[in-house]
Amino acid sequence: MGKLSKEAFAVMAMCEKTKENFGITVDSRRGHYAFCWGFKIKEGQGKREGYDKKSVHGAISFDSDFNGCPYCGSKQFYICSRCGKVVCYHGQESVTCPNCGASSTLKAAESVDLSGGGF
Ligand SMILES: [Zn+2]
Ligand SMILES: [Zn+2]
Asked: What is the CB neighbour count within 10 angstroms for residue 99?
């Protein structure tokens, strides 16, 4: 993991493929958020840590050593427009949030590109 600022926090996210909860360490960088590290955590433990009270919205980037979803390895994510959950993403046009069940069609502006690109 790279250096984190004092603004760093963690959010709860969910894996679309396995429907498992996990945490992502997020750092705040001058008006946008950088995803730094994904880690497995039980939902109850994340709640005790207060991770579920945090959410991210707005511009997101990825640290170069960001490991992605700890379950499926995806390094793309979207944020559910209904519940605000961060969900890993696999390039499909329409998505169903594993947390609240909302279906949405991702527009280019809403999907997040890996900085640097390519797999
Ligand atoms: Zn995943
Ligand atoms: Zn949702």
From this structure: 19
